[in-house]
Design goal:
Helix 8 (116-129) runs antiparallel to helix 9. This protein has 4 domains: 2-157, Tetratricopeptide repeat domain (Serine Threonine Protein Phosphatase 5, Tetratricopeptide repeat); 163-443, Neuraminidase; 450-542, Carboxypeptidase-like, regulatory domain (Immunoglobulin-like); 546-676, 2-Layer Sandwich (60s Ribosomal Protein L30, Chain: A), CATH 3.30.1330. The strands form 9 sheets. Strands 24, 25, 27, 29, 33, 34, 35 and 36 form an 8-stranded mixed β-sheet that branches. Strands 6, 7, 8, 9 and 10 form a 5-stranded antiparallel β-sheet that branches. Strands 15, 16, 17, 18 and 19 form a 5-stranded antiparallel β-sheet that branches. It is 24% helix and 31% strand. The protein is an alpha+beta fold. The longest helix has 23 residues, at 135-157. 44% of the residues are buried.
């Protein structure tokens, strides 16, 4: 995914909405015609639409390895790792002779999806069998990936004290990247101006602005404002701008401008602009640093042992050990940058090494890599020293790194507060949970932090084995109010982690199909002498015998009032709550896609609150109700038809409030809860 690494732009075009491009899918089109259309869509950068055609052909040609390879690669480019895993697994089993590297990619997808034991098996088999001309490079990568499987399990069991927080208002629905810490209240970064997925072919014809731009955003210390485009010549027309950094005095900006070479990539170069008399000068290409015909990007400025300015950057020029390497150039007394040198084999790998940042106070070089021992995808690392001598390369660990793509670390002058870029679940995303990158605020200072680790099991299991697939959701309790904190899906081979506040009260909810939802109280100690991790086993029991039926309610468009036809359902739910006093009720509001994200979030909360108020008016205690809204994030039906037209039936299904019954984990009564999602009575 080299184009993604260079500036993280081409991958965005793969998620173009079907309503932007008419794909003209039709069952009567021949497979040959479908393949021709699919290949053209790939050239246009419309990967999602290309996948649809390849899937159609695959139904008729299930054993065609070329089609399966295309589906595997396209889903990987779209960062739909679960789908990519499925197709790479099929390819590796069907045609290992023509696609021997499919097993390596399968291992990477398994690792990204958190299946470390299975991934390790694939990597070891690949190392033993692969003997093509590029075997040395691939075996080096596979060995690092296999070692990373063991490291990942250890890192997740012992997270660092770092905190990671998503920047809600700053991030767009598509990718945001290259954050730069300007001051405690100001951030500079890059993003696409559009908040809708892009069709590259139409965009290139001038029908949509799709060029990356440098943005700035501010905060009052509590809330971040929506970012605004940086006003200056750095945002050059018909070129992608990003990766901007400022000199110590804030008067020189180094940044990247990229021009497209073809549908698959671009060539990037580093420029500088100087602030003179309040205005920025026109961008000037740094000819001594850039290399004709190769990408030079991700500038970062540090100091050498003599105090001279050093520019670190990443490039795929000749002399690299992998796809992208870190390079550096030193500025002499005349202000001229020296001929670049490779940062060396201690840092660079057979993979991609990029997005450097130098912490001058602590003399640490941070960078991202796919070739060092890591947790999965792209990880962030650091090494101490300078260009004369580097120390051991260290992984930043969890939670800075995940099994997904984590990069672009940038810190303040003290090297404690800053930002990273990640596509971990929870980002704003128009397609899937990991398609796009967002900016996260981080704190890596040595503060005392408290974590809880544990797993769900059943009291009926004498061996107390972990149960896989439990949705574990954590709530913070303040008085009678419950605040949603975070949630994970449990694994059978590793424990889950949450960060807690000292002296706090929490509830841990566990839900899984076929099991009775459970809830457990967690109290944390007030005083911490050092960072600590609480270990706790949570219990969830299988559902049998007693049955309870719970039905969701639907709402009119843009309304939060309970319809008359659903009053009977609310009364039935109230009866359940009265007959079962140990139960808590989770009330979750949802909307269709009409309206803005912020408006739909508030509308979903009003719908949930309307149902909660109904329960309260009938005498259900407030501390038995957990109320939350999800806006338009969790549809249960398409809001639009495949051709991009409105789907009123689907939207009617999405305008709903869902209920979940929760009980104390200590209650072992065997009960089956049936959640009835019968469709709404009207689509109005």
């Amino acid at each position: 995914m080299k184009a993604f690494i260079m500036l993280i732009i081409p991958i965005l075009f793969g998620i173009s909405d079907e309503d932007i491009q008419n794909t003209q899918r039709h069952e009567k089109i021949s497979n040959r015609k479908k393949l021709k259309i699919a290949k053209q869509l790939v050239k246009d950068g419309s990967y999602h639409n290309a996948v649809l055609y390849y899937e159609d052909v695959h139904e008729d040609r299930p054993n065609n390895s070329h089609i399966i390879a295309a589906l595997a690669d396209l889903n990987y480019y779209l960062r739909d790792y679960k789908e990519a895993q499925k197709w790479y697994e099929e390819l590796a089993g069907l045609d290992p002779k023509n696609y021997p590297v499919a097993q390596f990619h399968l291992g990477r997808m398994l690792k990204i999806n958190g299946k470390y034991a299975e991934a390790k098996v694939e990597f070891k088999e690949f190392i033993d069998k692969y003997d093509d001309d590029d075997a040395a490079r691939y075996k080096s990568l596979a060995k690092a990936e296999a070692a990373g499987c063991d490291y990942a399990i250890e890192a997740m069991e012992e997270p660092t004290t770092a905190t990671v927080v998503h920047l809600e208002n700053v991030n767009h629905k598509l990718t945001d990247f290259s954050p730069q810490y300007v001051s405690p209240t100001r951030l500079m970064y890059a993003a696409l101006p559009s908040d809708t997925a892009i069709n590259l072919n139409l965009a290139r014809k001038g029908k949509k602005d799709y060029y990356a731009r440098i943005f700035v955003a501010g905060t009052d210390g509590q809330t971040w404002e929506v970012g605004k485009q940086f006003q200056g010549p750095q945002n050059k027309e018909k070129m992608h701008a990003g990766n901007a950094i400022l000199s110590d005095n804030g008067r020189v900006m180094y940044f990247t401008l990229c021009g497209e070479e073809n549908a698959y990539g671009m060539i990037c170069n580093i420029y500088e602009s100087v602030l003179r008399d309040g205005d920025w000068t026109e961008p000037k290409k740094l000819d001594n640093i850039n290399k004709e015909g190769f990408t030079t990007t991700h500038p970062a400025v540090g100091k050498d042992a003599e105090g001279k300015d050093v520019m670190y950057f990443s490039s795929n020029r000749k002399g690299t050990r992998g796809g992208m390497d870190l390079w550096y150039s030193v500025k002499d007394v005349s202000g001229k940058w020296s001929r670049p040198s490779n940062a060396g084999k201690a840092i660079n790998t057979a993979g991609d090494d990029m997005t450097p940042f130098y912490d001058m106070k602590n003399q640490k070089l941070y960078f991202a890599s796919t070739g060092h021992v890591g947790i999965g995808g792209i990880d962030i690392y650091y090494t101490e020293g300078n260009i004369d001598q580097w120390g051991e390369v260290m992984n930043m660990g969890v939670p800075i790194n995940t099994s997904y793509d984590d990069q672009y670390l940038a810190l303040d002058d003290d090297g404690e507060l800053g930002y990273i870029v990640s596509n971990r679940p929870g980002v704003l995303s128009p397609r899937g949970e990991t398609c796009c990158d967002d900016i996260f605020y981080i704190d890596i200072s040595e503060e005392k932090n408290l974590f809880i680790k544990g797993y769900f099991t059943s009291r009926k299991d004498p061996e107390r084995k972990p149960i896989e697939g439990v949705e574990a959701a954590l709530y913070f309790i303040e008085g009678k109010q419950f605040s949603y904190v975070d949630e994970v899906v449990t694994s059978k081979d590793k424990m889950f982690y949450f960060q807690l506040q000292p002296g706090g009260s929490y509830k841990m909810n566990g839900t899984k199909e076929g099991y009775w939802p459970s809830i457990t109280n967690v109290e944390t100690p007030t005083d911490l002498e050092e960072s600590d991790t609480i270990f706790k086993i949570f219990y969830i029991e299988p559902v049998v015998q007693k049955k309870i039926k719970v039905q969701q309610v639907y709402f009119a468009f843009d309304k939060s009032v309970i319809r008359d036809e659903y009053i009977e359902r609310m009364d039935s739910l109230h009866s359940v709550m009265v007959r079962n006093m140990k139960y808590l009720l989770e009330i979750a509001g949802h909307t269709d896609s009409k309206g803005t994200d912020s408006y739909n979030q508030k509308l979903s909360e009003r719908r949930a609150r309307s149902c909660a108020d109904y329960m309260l008016n009938l005498g259900v205690d407030d501390d038995r109700l957990l109320v939350k809204g999800f806006g338009e994030e969790r549809p249960i039906a398409p809001n639009e038809n495949p051709d991009g037209s409105d789907n009123p039936i689907g939207r009617a299904k999405n305008r709903r409030v869902e209920f979940k019954l929760l009980k104390d984990a200590a209650d072992t009564e065997e009960v089956e809860i049936i959640y009835d999602d019968s469709p709404p009575s009207t689509i109005e």
